[in-house]
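Practice problem 4.
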């Protein structure tokens, strides 16, 4: 766990969660890893609009926070896989709830936009 997270006051637990999971990509990366270990290239293909630099950065942060583990296989060519730790796996139900909420929100907004602009 990062030092800044450890030093946050007890009343800032939402901030702790947002510090660890915040940003556009972290939950998306975790969501793909819920299906099992993936290599860097597989994650890059699954998240087609993420840059290589950003994916590397997000993976390092997730690893530093103890949500994923990076396994290096000693073979030629070298093989590296990313998988969830138990802590990372504990987020699966939360991610599923956020996914459901995101679907609901998108549908609600689409319905609202159609109602406000009947010509569309």
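Answer key:
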């Amino acid at each position: 766990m990062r030092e800044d997270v450890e030093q946050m006051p007890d009343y800032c637990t939402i901030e702790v969660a947002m510090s660890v999971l915040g940003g556009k990509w972290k939950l998306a990366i975790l969501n793909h890893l819920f299906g099992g270990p993936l290599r860097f290239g597989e994650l890059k293909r699954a998240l087609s609009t993420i840059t290589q630099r950003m994916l590397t950065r997000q993976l390092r942060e997730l690893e530093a926070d103890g949500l994923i583990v990076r396994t290096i296989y000693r073979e030629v060519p070298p093989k590296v896989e990313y998988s969830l730790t138990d802590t990372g796996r504990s987020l699966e139900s939360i991610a599923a709830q956020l996914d459901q909420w995101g679907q609901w929100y998108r549908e609600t907004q689409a319905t609202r936009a159609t109602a406000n602009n009947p010509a569309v």
